[in-house]
């Protein structure tokens, strides 16, 4: 009974998200929740603008995984569901500076989405990847290499790796903004339960955003950066320690209260081994609608797909409630 209540609570909260900034000025809070990609510091997109005062955000995602591959004496098996909740606190100080703290809560389980995913694939004529040959709603994560093995077969939940980032807005020109950020991901999540990498990562990036035309209905965002990762005991000898990441996002406010959003996130392969889901460049495409109840409240709902197949979760579902705070 306790387990059911725990899963239900996580699922409910993972479908809710709130963040800061006016309704038409933030990208989607989406990240790659592959059980290995989530171990690395690959920051989500956000606005380049810094706002004075304290702001907060709660974001959530539900991700379904199904990857089975063997090559060169290595094998990968990812079958399960990952839910992520994150509380972020951002404080703008001085002029154009802000500091951000992100506290994630993770939940790995067999989940409840396998049947829905199979129906989704059938409805749109998408490949099912032999899902029907394996038990439904089962948790089985495993990476086997010649020199080691990591696996998870029991549901787990708990705090993940905490992140802290310092950002400065470098340029404002009309409706365009440019900012730089540096960050660190700690080793606070437990490696035994796949809640953290067991190592510290650092990263640096540039963010940019704007509006087109200057008073128009099209908002755009982008980022590009590099992560320097520690050696995680979960990822084997072939793990990459230096990774790049990038992303772009477009929001079209086509009606006074409605917007359509399209977002792409990518990062370098996680490994130099023989397994394509880990050594290929990862790509995640997100689509959503946004309804603005007011200038300070909005609702997002949509989904993400692994456009570079098997490098990210098979599908993510998300719905978000956003609020901008007074500063």
Question: What is the secondary structure topology, with strand pairs?
Answer:
Elements: H1 2-14, E1 53-71, E2 74-93, E3 97-109, H2 114-124, E4 140-145, E5 148-152, E6 156-159, E7 163-173, E8 176-185, E9 201-212, E10 218-228, E11 242-255, E12 258-267, H3 276-279, E13 282-292, E14 297-306, E15 315-323
Antiparallel strand pairs: 1-2, 1-15, 2-3, 2-4, 3-6, 3-7, 4-5, 7-8, 8-9, 9-10, 10-11, 11-12, 12-13, 13-14, 14-15
Task: Give the structure's gist in a few sentences.
This protein has 327 residues and is mostly beta strands.
Q: Could you explain how this protein is built, in words?
A:
The protein has helices spanning 2-14, 114-124, 276-279; strands at residues 53-71, 74-93, 97-109, 140-145, 148-152, 156-159, 163-173, 176-185, 201-212, 218-228, 242-255, 258-267, 282-292, 297-306, 315-323. The protein is mainly beta. The chain has a single domain (2-323), classed as Beta Barrel (Porin). It has a twelve-stranded antiparallel beta barrel. A hairpin with a 2-residue loop joins β4 (140-145) and β5 (148-152). The termini are far apart. 44% of the residues are buried.
